[in-house]
Design goal:
The chain has 235 residues and is α/β, with parallel strands linked by helices. The chain contains 8 helices and 9 strands. The protein has a 5-stranded mixed beta sheet with strand order 5-6-7-8-9. Strands 1-2-3-4 form a 4-stranded parallel beta sheet. The relative contact order is 0.15. The structure holds zinc ion (ZN).
Length: 235
């Protein structure tokens, strides 16, 4: 398989050139850092990698700060939710989607989580079907509604030492530990407020019953630094 990347961030070259006013407002609310220092290229370089070294890019959902660097990955395969992608195509304005942030040949290089084999996981099944990314149970995926349709979350490791990449299902690990939803003033950002609250509560319950798990929301700098986990696998 090679190296796997979870989301691309918001590439300053590509993203800034296409950002609309609403997208800039979104980035401001979401505390998105679009500087060159935090770009995916810079992050990969710290690991001694370049975009062409990445075999698979998992796209959790289609907000610009998660797909803004996708065009840099000219040879990689992509993985996303079919329902999530089709929803973004159907409702680009409401879901903040820019098709031009994706490579032109995205669909020919994309696989869908819904087509992966399923695996039994009594803990993650609170979110519905559980998918097996590599076919060995090492990385399991679930699709979490609320912030965006069918957001791809990935669990690495077993029940004793797991790392759960939850993308924007919560904005901080503290929000999960306290079951604290985002301000209702940000409702316009989210696709389904009721589902967001329900799934945040599920994450909260998992956090209470598994205090050794690392929950890593994409915008939580603290948990990103603490977890020191990357969805990478080299073989
Ligand atoms: Zn988002």
């Amino acid at each position: 398989m090679g190296w796997v990347l979870y989301d691309t961030g918001y590439d300053p070259e590509i993203g800034a050139a296409t950002a609309s006013f609403s997208m800039r407002l979104y980035a401001r609310v979401m505390n998105v850092d679009v500087s060159r220092k935090t770009s995916v290229v810079a992050g990969l370089a710290k690991l001694g990698l370049r975009p062409e070294d990445i075999s698979l890019v998992v796209l959790s959902h289609f907000h610009p700060d998660h797909i803004g660097g996708a065009r840099l990955f000219a040879k990689s395969r992509f993985l996303c939710s079919r329902v999530g992608y089709e929803s973004a195509l159907r409702h680009p304005r409401r879901l903040g989607f820019r098709r031009d942030l994706l490579p032109d040949d995205f669909e020919t290089r994309c696989d869908y989580v819904e087509d992966l084999s399923m695996v039994f996981d009594s803990l993650l099944s609170v979110f519905g079907k559980v998918y097996d990314l590599f076919g060995d149970g090492e990385v399991r995926c679930v699709l979490i509604d609320g912030h965006a349709p069918r957001q791809v979350a990935c669990m690495l490791g077993g029940p004793d030492a797991a790392c759960f990449l939850v993308s924007d299902a919560a904005w901080s690990s503290q929000a999960i530990s306290r079951n604290c939803p985002p301000s209702s003033l940000t409702r316009w950002i989210h696709d389904d407020w009721k589902a967001l609250l329900e799934n945040l509560e599920k994450l909260h319950r998992l956090a209470l019953s598994h205090p050794n798990w690392k929950f890593v929301p994409s915008h939580c700098r603290v948990s990103l630094e603490e977890a020191e986990c990357r969805l990478v696998r080299s073989c």
